[in-house]
Amino acid sequence: MIDSHQHLQKSDGLLVIDVQWDFCPGGLLPVPDAQKIIGVLNTWIQTALEREVPVYTSRDWHPRGHLSFREKGGPWPPHCIQDTDGAQFHPALHRDEKILVITKGTRFDMDQNSVFEETGFSRQLFHDGVRRLIIGGLALDGCVLQTALDALHNGFEVHIIEDATRPMNEEEGRRAIERLVKAGAVIL
C-alpha cells in the first residue's frame, strides 16, 4: 500500500463510504471483517485533515420500508434505517467537524448505491478543487464499486485504498477490483 503521508496532495479528496454499525459485525447487514478497515481509514483521515485535504464520509440513511429491503421486493434486509443505532457511524471511526457528510439512500423511489447518485457530490468536489478521489469503506463489491465507477465517469482520478475496504463476498470483491482497474482506477 502506498503510504498516505507521502502521497496526499491539495487537489485530493478522501472519501470514506458507509462505515456504519449495520455494515459491521453484529449489524443487520455485516460485511466480513469490516472492523479491520477502521484503523487504516483513521490514519488516512488524520493525515488528510493535517494536510487540509477535504474529507467526506457517506452514510446510508434509509426510510423505514425502503424499496431496497426484502419486505418491499429488494435484495437486502432492512439496514441503516434513519435515526437508528445501526445507521450511526462506527464509534471507532475518526470524526471531526471538518468532515462533510453525504447522506444517500433517502429516496423512496430508488436506491442510491453510489455517493454520486442524486446527491450533488460531484459539484461539491469540483467546488473544493478535488481532481483525485481516494476511496475506502464498505462494501467493495457494492457502494465502493458503484461510487468509484461514477467518480471515473465524472472525470475524477480514482484511487482505492485496498486495505481500507472489504467486500460482502470475496469472489465479487475480486471482480470489483478487476472492473475498477479496467475502468482506470488505481489500487493502493
Explain the overall architecture.
By secondary structure, the chain is of the alpha/beta class. The chain has a single domain (4-187), classed as Isochorismatase-like (Rossmann fold). The protein is 28% helix and 19% strand. The protein contains five helices and six strands; from the N terminus they run αβαββαβαβαβ. The protein has a six-stranded parallel β-sheet, sandwiched between helices. Helix 4 runs parallel beside helix 5 (170-183). The model has no long low-confidence stretch (mean pLDDT 95).
Concise synopsis of the structure shown:
By secondary structure, the protein is of the alpha/beta class.
CATH architecture: 3-Layer(aba) Sandwich
Q: Residue-averaged pLDDT, rounded?
A: 95
The shape, in one word, is globular
CATH H-tier superfamily: Isochorismatase-like
Largest sheet: 6 strands, parallel
Question: Share of helix among residues?
Answer: 25-40%
Q: Which blocks of ≥5 consecutive residues have pLDDT under 50?
A: none
Distance between the termini: 5 Å
* Structural class assignment: alpha/beta
Secondary-structure map:
Layout (H helix, E strand, L loop, with lengths): L3 H4 L4 E6 L20 H13 L4 E6 L39 E5 L16 H7 L4 E7 L1 H14 L3 E10 L3 H14 L2 E2 L1
Parallel strand pairs: 1-2, 1-4, 2-3, 4-5, 5-6
Helix pairs in contact: 4-5
From the structure above, extract its key features:
188 residues, alpha/beta, Rossmann fold, six-stranded parallel sheet, 5 helices, 6 strands
